[in-house]
Write a structure and sequence with these properties.
With 275 residues, the protein is an alpha/beta fold. It has a single domain, classed as NADP-dependent oxidoreductase domain (TIM Barrel), CATH 3.20.20.100. Helix content is 39%, strand content 15%. An 8-stranded parallel β-sheet has the order 3-4-5-6-7-8-9-10. The protein has a two-stranded antiparallel ribbon with strand order 1-2. Helix 2 crosses helix 3 and helix 7 packs across helix 8. The radius of gyration is 18 Å and the shape is globular. 47% of the residues are buried.
Length: 275
């Protein structure tokens, strides 16, 4: 059971990845994201998730340098964007991200979306970065089972993480089971459903535990063995999102939350995107 913000999951290559991290999607570069990183670290977060497409890697890097915690204590994720996919262009994109973050290495580097005709060559570049020691772990985002099957057939290294949209309205049980069978750690983006937390069952469960609906959803993530990265710039909200280690949801309440699944997406469909 996950009982502390310092708890982590062990990826299949032995690397420890924190169960809870700070997501920085749509947080402006500069002081805003820098302060969000510092607030999160002071609260106890040790994982920060950014991406080239977020255009805030420079500010994230500044926050990492100013947060008062040694680099080796932090777990930093970034991602290669779709327009940079391909072997050589991915290697160039990685160097650009590393330079903006001003880091010697990245803990986790991900393919942001499964761009048809490109993600296999992109994966070869990630494998090279991993073998060279530039990244400690590699993985993908938004890959469905058929994408993973296709990639794994020609891969030398199986993805260690699959970061996907995951929340009580989109439980993705088949994908989750598949990833578990391959020792791929599932990670949730948009865990709080872009703030749409007014489901009656969720409100009822939250009231019963004396917790907010957001805290219940994040606890549900962890008890489902899913890494979660809620986004916030508000220090109080960052603290609230981390106050999920002093209670456990009952198995009955876990099932009630699982039962909310309606396959509702708030983000794009990995099988139908055009960017």
């Amino acid at each position: 059971m996950t009982n502390s913000i310092s708890d982590s999951t062990k990826l299949y290559n032995g690397i420890q990845m924190p169960w809870l991290g700070l997501g920085v999607y749509q947080i402006p570069d500069g002081k805003t994201v820098e302060q969000a990183v510092c607030s999160a670290v002071s609260t106890g977060y040790r994982s920060i998730d950014t991406a080239a497409a977020y255009r805030n890697e420079t500010g994230v890097g500044q926050g990492i340098r100013n947060c008062g915690i040694a680099r080796k204590e932090l777990f930093v994720t970034t991602k290669v964007w779709n327009s940079d996919q391909g072997y050589n262009s991915t290697l160039s994109a990685f160097e650009a991200s590393r330079k903006k973050l001003n880091l010697d290495y990245i803990d986790l580097y991900l393919i942001h979306w499964p761009v048809q005709g490109k993600y296999k060559e992109t994966w070869k570049a990630l494998e090279k970065l991993y073998m060279d020691g530039s990244v400690r772990a590699i993985g993908v985002c938004n890959f469905n089972i058929h994408h993973l099957d296709d990639l794994i057939r020609q891969a030398n290294v199986i993805p260690m993480v699959n970061q996907v949209e995951y929340h009580p309205l989109l439980v993705q049980q088949r994908l989750h089971a598949y990833c578990e069978s391959k020792q791929i750690q599932l990670e949730a983006w948009s865990p709080l459903m872009q703030g749409r937390l007014d489901e009656p069952v969720l409100l009822e469960i939250a009231a019963n535990y004396g917790k907010s609906p957001a805290q219940v959803v994040l606890r549900w993530d962890l008890q489902n063995q899913v890494v979660t990265i809620p986004k916030s710039t508000n220090p109080k909200r960052i603290e609230e999102n981390a106050a999920i280690f002093d209670f456990n949801l009952s198995s009955a309440d876990m099932e009630r939350l699982n039962g909310l699944n309606r396959s509702v997406r708030f983000g794009p469909d990995p099988d139908n995107f055009n960017f």
